[in-house]
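Appendix B, Record 12. Input sequence as logged:
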Amino acid sequence: MIMLGLCLAMLAACFDGTIVGTIGSVLAADLNGLELYAWMTTAYMLCETIMIPIAGKLSDIYGRKKLFLIGLTIFTVGSLFAGMSTSMEMFIACRAFQGLGGGILIPVATAAVADLYSPSDRARMQGILGAIFGIGSGIGPLIGGYITEFSTWHWCFYMNVPIAIAAGLLTIKKFPAPVGGERSKIDVKGLVALSVLLLDVLLLFEFGGSEFEWVSATSFAMIAIALALVVVFVLVERKAENPMLAPHLIKNPTVIMGAIFMFVFGIGMMGAMMYASMFSIYVMGLTVLEAGEWSLAMIAGMMITSISSGALVNRTGYKPWLIVGPVLCFIGLFIMSGVSVDPTMVITSSVADTYMWQYLGGMFVLGLGLGCMMSVVMSAVQNSAKPSEMGMTTSAVNLMRSVGSTMGTAIFAMVINSKLSGELLSLAPDVYANYPHDTGVLNYIATFTADQYGNVITAFGNSVNFTFLVGGTILLCLAIVGIFFKVRKPDVDEEFEAAKMAVEGRGPEE
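Logged structural output:
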């Protein structure tokens, strides 16, 4: 029952992180706040990412149940008031409040699996959570599209309330107690230093290249601040009695490799989802809702391998999945990059069957690859961590995934805009001379002549295909990490048995 509650909470938190992608323009227009459009997603993402390491550490000290219920309450209240918003400023504030709740729910739910299940069972259950993560992140835009088509955007947030109530009822009675937590010691200095560091880095990658140039005084200042904060954080953590992120984690090769995997996973998943949707809409002539439906191919692939890898990893070991996963990601993105760009096809809004099946096949294979990694990495990290540090260790890896997602958006944007600029200069020099040289040119599609339209779409399609190849190559490099991946063998320890008995309500003698 607890596991079902965790899955429901994670599902709501994940799809709420991406749901604004579909409803954003309608919502912003309704609230007369188009100039604040970017902050609808940014506010949620910033608060969620900053909260992840804090929640993980606090759950080690005060227990998962208390933190989970606090996070669930914050997320629910934020969702309710987001749906009731009457201004853009109110909505953004509610999104930030939601992000705080989501940032608690995700790491606590992931860490709770290690409290509830033995090391040999964790991979199977992490596979289920991994599938939930993929489903939640992928169906957010689709749910938003359906709700706004048949109702109003307000219900995109109201629907979280019954889900949260159900999750709370399923988890409120029994929950693992903290193992070895030191309740009186909170690393306040480390908490502040890490929060400011993450805020600086995330804002740099969120607005770099758009609000300010990458090569500018603002960028250099933010980089200098980040480097200074890294030094401060390391010094603070070395002296802290109960650090937010213990320095000895860097000595654990499983945690380091897991963090690398999840960081690149975040880059690849976010970039692929963002530009795959844009490709299907602008190049293949789909509606926003149809593009969301097509993305189910990737989600289906993620579900299959996430669940199967978790169930089979004890037999196969970790390495095969962490080698095959990056290879499948590369193959999927390579297939997608081969979809031909035909301006005539776009103008008539007709999609050739060959292109459709090639595109869907690539999305499915990409999903298979992404699903191979997430649950396997998380279970490996948890099996190498001390039970008393499970929340801290788990949140450290989750944090790298979240930061990777933010950086992935910026990296893919730089790659595609650079390529698109050259493509426009070659295929549509008149457009290049009078319109933006990046994806902003798509905002002027309706004003172009037929020839300009076709050339611009061809340029954009070629740029996305190139970006798919770049992303695939980045993910393929993870196979090297997979070859050298080492994991401590799962074993049953006294601390885990004590926690299990506490959950089951029995004493040591039983």
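DSSP finds 21 helices and no strands in the chain.
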